[in-house]
Request: fold
Amino acid sequence: MNQEIQTIYLEIRAGVGGEEAALFARDLWRMYLKFFEKNKFKIKILDLNETDLGGIKSLTAEITGNKAYDLLKQEAGVHRVQRIPVTEKSGRIHTSTASVAILPKLNLPQIQIKESDIEISFFRAGGPGGQNVNKVETAVRILHKPTGIVVSCQTERSQQRNREIALELLKNKIWELEQQKIYGNLTEERRKQIGSQERAEKIRTYNFPQNRVTDHRLNKSWHNLEDIMNGNLDPILKAFHKELQLV
Reply:
């Protein structure tokens, strides 16, 4: 593959399954993080909302690296886990979900956002377990009223800088929405990226009791789940790239 530095927005959200879904979202983030670190990608967490047990309700990160979008765009969708949760006392296997969205970061000066179309709120940046790490309300949340899109940023100490980053993310989300409308596949793309986070809507299943990861689009399984969860996504990525003739 040719060297081509690309930047993406990665979003992970806990789906069906309560606290276990949030813990699974955390494990997905850890998996991607290890992959990013191994490939020397630059990582910037823009927004992180955690549970008291350290699970992830939602996370948005900016990732920059060689072919980042080409490599990871197929990660978008609903991921399903089957395992015995740490919170389970009777040893039953639970099924939970988390959604992943991959959005290319683009320079979009042509997209104008009216002040009257957005609702901005400020809050304190939170740390693990909901602890406040900032006594000043520097974190920014923006609601785009015409589309219902909500974005947040709390990575910077400056309220103004967080606002700028959040607006940049919002422009990219609006652009994606417009492209989907143009190509007439808004419903399909939304389902593919986020779905309803129901257990039946899945692109991949991580089955811990059987040490198996199955990608339902390729109808292919790997029996090295621990290795994959430690960031070795290469077998899955190569299977997709062969299918898509990217490498």
Residues 5-107+187-237 form a domain with the Alpha-Beta Plaits fold (CATH 3.30.70.1660). DSSP finds six helices and eleven strands in the chain. The longest helix spans residues 159-182.
